[in-house]
Specification:
Elements (H helix, E strand, L loop, with lengths): L2 E9 L2 E12 L4 E7 L2 E9 L7 E4 L4 E6 L13 H9 L4 H10 L7 E6 L4 E5 L4 E4 L3 E5 L9 H14 L4 E2 L2 E2 L1 H5 L20 H7 L9 E11 L5 E8 L5 E9 L7 E2 L1
Antiparallel strand pairs: 1-2, 1-10, 2-13, 3-4, 4-5, 5-6, 6-7, 7-8, 8-9, 11-12, 13-14, 14-15, 15-16
Length: 265
């Protein structure tokens, strides 16, 4: 992922509410959100090159997502960042145990920010400082910068989220998927004075600045909404894009409490 919003105990009847955009080169082969053949209790996309994922959730509420951490340097890493999400989803360690283990080998990965959660807790690693923290109730936005930074797209998404939250977002226990995913399609271009200095060329900084990136070779490839209701009902909705932001697929997966897996609806 390149932009992730995690709302804990904020949306009525939904203790977990997650919105995220995955930005990537369109030529990199990957699979859209589906159950994993080797672990049917997990649903999420899959990178065909390294076998990891940018975001996924298990039917017991265990979930994770990773963003790259942009610093302007090309780094060849021993391990794929997507493996951090995959290994969390396939494992059963507690959050603090897992994050501490990752921190001990953080230099084996290219720079990243990582969020992992269960049905009761959410924690994260800030890759810039190599520290972990637990999330409290509230709205948390993670992008490609350090925790201490608040890039324009992160500010913008939080602003749009709060506005949507004020307009009766839940009816009869359900949310309007399209209206929430539309927040991730915002292409407002920040002024140059708002842009971070992440060590890259200004033209590229501008191109990467909006919430949604529309490009021929690189851009937003998936917008995802993950929710957990108070009754334990889980859902993952994903809208997939090709070059210049053309939608080519949209999928919805659900899992009821005590269900052995996921159902595509």
């Amino acid at each position: 992922m390149c932009l992730l919003l995690v709302a804990i105990d904020v949306v009525p009847d939904h203790p977990l509410f997650l919105l995220g955009n995955r930005d990537e080169f369109h030529a990199r082969p990957s699979d859209t959100a589906a159950t994993w053949a080797d672990a049917l209790q997990i649903v999420g996309g899959r990178d065909r090159i390294a076998g990891g994922t940018w975001l996924g959730i298990r039917n017991d509420g265990r979930f994770a997502s990773v963003t790259n951490l942009r610093n302007g340097r090309a780094i060849q890493a021993e391990l794929s960042r997507g493996a951090l999400v995959r290994d969390w989803l396939l494992g059963d360690d507690g959050i603090e145990v897992y994050l501490d283990r990752v921190l001990k080998q953080i230099d084996r990965y290219a720079p990243f920010n990582l969020v992992v959660g269960t049905s009761s807790q959410v924690g994260a690693i800030d890759g810039a400082t190599a520290t972990r923290r637990m999330f409290e109730s509230g709205i948390h936005v993670i992008s490609n910068g350090p925790r201490a930074s608040c890039w324009p797209k992160a500010k913008r998404l939080k602003h749009l989220f709060r506005g949507r939250l004020a307009s009766n977002p839940v009816i009869d226990g359900n949310v309007s998927v399209d209206s929430w995913l539309s927040l991730l399609g915002d292409m407002r271009q920040p002024a140059d004075t708002e842009l971070p200095d992440s060590g890259i060329d200004l033209q590229i900084e501008r191109m990467l600045a909006p919430i949604f990136i529309s490009g021929n070779e690189y851009g937003t490839r998936a917008s995802t909404l993950v929710t957990r209701r108070t009754d334990g009902y889980l859902s993952l909705d994903e809208r997939s894009f090709g070059p210049v932001g053309i939608v080519f697929d949209q999928r919805r997966w659900t899992s009821e409490p005590e269900s052995p897996g996921w159902l595509e609806v």
